[in-house]
Amino acid sequence: MSPRTEAQNQVIREQARQQIINAAFELFAQIGYQKTSIAAIAKEAGVSKGLIYHYFESKEDVLIGIFEMLTELGDQIIDAGAEKSPKEHLKDVLNQVFQFIEHQTGLAKLMIGLSLQQDALETLREKVHHGNRDQIEKSAQIFEDLGYDDPKTEAFFLGATLDGVLLGLITMGDDYPLENVKKAIFEKYELN
User: Fold this and answer.
1) DSSP secondary structure code for residue 2 in this structure
2) Is 112 helix (H, G, I), strand (E, B) or coil?
3) Quick one: CA torsion of 134, 137, 142, 146, rounded to 10 degrees?
4) Amino acid 24: pLDDT
5) SS (HEC) of 59-94
6) In whole angstroms, what is the distance from residue 170 CA to residue 174 CA?
7) What is the pLDDT of residues 18-32, one digit of tens each?
8) Are 114 and 34 in contact (CB under 8 A)?
9) How far apart are CA 11 and CA 1, in angstroms?
10) Are 108 and 99 in contact (CB under 8 A)?
11) Tens-digit pLDDT profile for residues 115-148
């Protein structure tokens, strides 16, 4: 058996880091950031505490890793179709958001659970502010390109609407009229 290449080692490192982030995310959302220990994260991830400290300096650093993962996901969604016309760009973004809402409900529940914890928010306050500002600016640019008089307000409105769709689906499950709501949003923005 030949030794692993540097590329193989990098994949293994990335998988271990992601395993830790996933376990921490689950625990932070379920039992709370404050109540979750590094030992609990290690147990949930099936790794040693030492391995966690190899990738993260502290529990706060793990939380920042989770936030960065979620920010990257949001950036990928909002950047989808950026090279297309503004209308097609918005359509691509909304299609990806609805794909996420429909198929990543578990991840969405964890995001909401974590976002409602004051101690976690306090740790991330500056990063959340910066991330939200960047995503609103990207959304506002789409609405500006579409000719809206107040693109920033429209970006906030759409964000709040999509947050409501997500909460509705989580709380109502199969009783939530997701397809009808999606259709109404697409009609509002004339994306049919």
Assistant:
1) P
2) helix
3) 180
4) 92
5) HHHHHHHHHHHHHHHHHHHHHCCCCCCHHHHHHHHH
6) 9
7) 999 999 988 887 888
8) no
9) 18
10) no
11) 777 887 787 788 777 878 889 999 999 999 999 9
